[in-house]
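::Encoded backbone::
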Amino acid sequence: MTKAKRPIRIVHLGLGAFYRAHACTYLQKLEGWGVLGVSLRSAAVRDRMRQRGYRYTAAALTPDGMDLQQIDVVQDMLVAPEDPAAVINALAEPAVSLVTLTVTEKGYCHDPATGTLNTNHPVVKSDIAHALPQTAPGFLARGLQARRAAGLPPFTVLSCDNLPANGAVTRRVTLDLANHVDPDLAAWIAAEVTFPSAMVDRIVPATTAEDIARIARLSGNMDAAPVVHEPFTQWVITDDFVGDLPDLATAGAQIVPDIAPFERMKLRMLNGAHSALAYLGSLAGFATVADAVADETVAAYLQVLWHEEIIPTLKVPPDTSLEDYAAALMSRFANPGIQHRLSQIAMDGSQKLPQRLLGTIEDRLAHGGRIDALLLALAGWIAYTANQSDDADPMAAKLRGCHASDPRQTVHNILSLSAIFKDPLSAQITAPLSDVYTDLTKKSARAMLATVAH
């Protein structure tokens, strides 16, 4: 007997590997909740997924091999540039009660330093002027506009991106855009729509051709769109919903009154360490997280970063030991089954640094604490933007233009980028960061790591 299709109750904007390896594995445990995926850019994921009717394999990478699971949560996919009106119509379907997002930091079209919508961005200007949008905030605003016009209740908007207070960020950019379109619409959204914040945690490396071939051998199915992930998973969500929603707690998510301690713990300890590894590890010649942490000097550096600089800034979440969390992170990073490429983590650094590193530096400075390991990570990012800059970073060209023959001038130029750095932090770290970056231009990354670690 063919398994009945799940009714589409969720629309997901930005259907990529992470959401399919994380949220969909929770939804797989629940009956009656299907997902309509939306690609905001290319048709590549849609074209690969529909080869198996949107059913795909999720492979947990363990030290001993792969554990395979078939996921049938996704029912269909739209490609927004092909038919933006179809996306708005889908958002306005009465059965839809939840809209989720994984559009990466830059997909929110906001100023990372302030959290406000970047209304100077050409695509945002277009979304304000035209009824058929291109951005995630534009689709949310126009989808809610369509529901309001039809007399339908709103949906809950749940961000699943690695952003601090991601619910508040999503709400802010949606309201900002809606206010430009129709102030009455913005007032309705502010009064009726909820934007809970979420902390998501699962390491999802890019799927390789070797992964696809291995999954085909193990499963007997040729799957063009599998995802690979670590065994660990965590999803913590603020208890702030409207309307009918899936019972995510039954599926293993944690529904809590205050997500901030969980969110800050994860963003600073996991994502902050990941960014430090991405830049310093790449400069030291390592390709993956597991390769980097197998080096004693890198491992010792991480212990300093966590225990001496990050953990003192954190409020302990309920029923959590931060020391145990650090030990678990090291074990996860060292998993030989996870080939998580440092170049993947390094992408879009200008959008990630404020929440992953800069907030921790601010808190340490406010209490007179050491920031040696944090400053080295920041210096590593500056060096990375000169030698291996990620062209997908929306500020890549500006960052490259900041580099000068004098390393101190380079630091001054980069700290002047107000979209990333804000006062008084820039002034506070100019001198010490200049010293560290100057040393990094003269010494190897590994030598600099050893200096901090010992």
Remarks:
- The chain has two domains: 8-256, 260-453.
- The chain has 20 helices and eleven strands.
